[in-house]
Amino acid sequence: MTEKIIELDGASIRFGEKQVLKGISLHVNKGEIFGLLGPSGAGKTTIINILTGQLSCEGKAEIFGKNCRKIGREVYRRTGAVLDNCGLYERLSCEDNLKLFARIHSVPFSEIGAVLQAVGLDGCEKKAVKSFSKGMKQRLALARAILHHPDLLFLDEPTSGLDPATAAEIHTLMNHLRSRGTTVFLTTHNMDEAYHMCDRIALLHEGNIVECGVPAEICRKHCQTAELRIVTSDEEPLLLANWPENADTVAQLIREGRLKSIHSSEPDLGTVFLRLTGKELDT
Ligand SMILES: Nc1ncnc2c1ncn2[C@@H]1O[C@H](COP(=O)(O)OP(=O)(O)OP(=O)(O)O)[C@@H](O)[C@H]1O
Ligand SMILES: [Mg+2]
Predict the structure, then answer these.
(1) In the sheet that 200-205 helps form, which strands lie side by side, from edge to edge?
(2) Cα(35) to centroid(ligand 1), Å
(3) In a designed cystine with 95, which of 26, 58, 125, 148 is the match (CB 3.0 to 4.6 A)?
(4) Per-residue model confidence as pLDDT tens digits over 137-151
(5) What are the pLDDT digits (tens) for 192-232?
(6) Could you tell me if 30 and 78 are in contact, meaning their C-beta atoms sit under 8 angstroms apart?
(7) Which of 78, 150, 166 has the alpha carbon at shortest distance from 158?
(8) Which helix (H) or strand (E) holds 115?
């Protein structure tokens, strides 16, 4: 049976008058990259805070089969996190930041070099963190989070505000971690990131999960138009209904070697979110 690394069942939380989570249920399997999508204020960071034992909720919240309210040293040793309030020591050097965490987790200092290389910060060991760019700080935060080889990694908007090249490096590292069996719980506003990086995602809106599953399957499920967008070899665009009556036209184009590209018209995740909630994902 697949091991559940994270489980929420009927998780609710309110801050004063505001009910932020209204009975959320989800689980994350071992080795998955799971993405939580929702607009600003939806409750994504709140869910991470619950799962990491920083906030207490009503309902069931477990990581590694343990109640999140009673997380002990053993669970923290198996967990890493990059949260949106980065938490690095600005006046310390890059290396000294990592040495501090290496000491906490009993990681030999000799492993620091390899982790800095993995995040592309080799050569920056002696530089003070205050001189780092946003992307460098984010990579150092990631280095710190993976230094002790956690089984579960929380990433709260890990590529937000980063240039595409740095974001791509972080995605490569995430894929590498997945290949080693690390489970990743990611929050993001970025639909492309969610679509391409996540095995499964949940869409969060006004305290509820409005959709959950494999990104491509979600998009197909919400496909309303059933159209085929075709471009022929002479660059002629063609929009055909995806009906049996049009099969011969498509077959003919293939036979004549004139079919240059063909796409079904399922919506992207942002469009799915808009249809389900009437709201844009990235607002
Ligand atoms: N400790 C707290 N006390 C009071 N209100 C809080 C607290 N933490 C979160 N909230 C409120 O809960 C709601 C959800 O906040 P949260 O930070 O989880 O959203 P988010 O989805 O992570 O948003 P963003 O995408 O902007 O990071 C917001 O309305 C926020 O003001
Ligand atoms: Mg947040």
Answers:
(1) 79-82, 152-156, 183-188, 33-37, 200-205, 208-213
(2) 17
(3) 125
(4) 989 999 999 999 999
(5) 899 999 999 999 999 999 999 999 999 988 887 778 889 99
(6) no
(7) 166
(8) helix 112-118
Q: Which residue has the tokens 């995602």?
A: 201
Token pair, residue 74, equals 């053993």
Which of 38, 43, 26 has the alpha carbon at shortest distance from 277?
38
Displacement of CA 23 from its chain's centroid (Å): 21
> What's the one-letter identity of residue 254?
I
CA distances from 13 to 21, 204, 208 (A): 5, 14, 12
Q: Which one-letter amino acid corresponds to residue 267?
A: P
Cross-strand partners of 261: 231
Contact 77, 69 (CB under 8 A): no
Max CA-CA distance within the chain? Answer: 69
Structure-token match 């939806």, residue found: 42
Architecture of the domain whose range is 4-214: 3-Layer(aba) Sandwich (3.40)
Ligand 1, CB within 6 Å, residue ranges:
15, 20, 38, 40-46
Ligand 2 geometric centre to CA of 253 (Å): 49
pTM here is 0.88
Residues of the chain with CATH 3.40.50.300: 4-214
Half-sphere exposure of 8 (CA within 13 A, CB side): 27
